[in-house]
Specification:
The protein is of the alpha+beta class and 132 residues long. Helix content is 14%, strand content 23%. Helix 1 links the parallel strand 2 and strand 3. InterPro entries: Cupredoxin, Phytocyanin_dom.
């Protein structure tokens, strides 16, 4: 059994968002969070998605400021943390550095992927003391 703390510890984990399905339209990320948590401060979320092409839709990653913006997919005050090009290869890594809710969503097509395609989820990282 490993231990983790707010200062970071070798047992911090990396999670590929969506598992083998990656970050894509139509996947239930609420279920994914429920089945893969708990998450801890200093864990890393890896967002993998194909760059835009003639056969794939573009995706991005936004960090929304609060629960209301998350529920309504309001991106007006959201911070883009990964562009449409950053999900390829090894993906984009986001470290959960703080002990507060993190609300994530795809910002493409004016929030349509968030609203219609379920491309949103939130995590509340715990301070520890361990990964089980």
């Amino acid at each position: 059994m490993g231990f983790t703390c707010a200062q970071g510890h070798p047992t911090s984990k990396k999670f590929i968002v969506g598992g083998s399905d990656h970050w894509r339209y139509g996947f239930n990320y609420t279920d994914w969070v429920f089945n893969n948590g708990p998450f801890y401060v200093n864990d890393t979320l890896v967002f993998k998605y194909d760059p835009p092409s003639k056969t794939t839709f573009p995706h991005s990653v936004y960090l929304l400021p609060n629960l209301r913006s998350f529920m309504t997919c309001d991106l007006s005050r959201a911070e883009q943390v990964a562009t449409v090009a950053q999900g390829g290869g090894e993906g984009f890594e986001f470290v959960l550095k703080n002990w507060w809710p993190h609300y994530f969503a795809c910002g493409e097509h004016d929030g349509l992927h968030c609203k219609e395609g379920m491309m949103k989820f939130f995590v509340m990282p715990l301070l520890g003391p361990y990964h089980g």
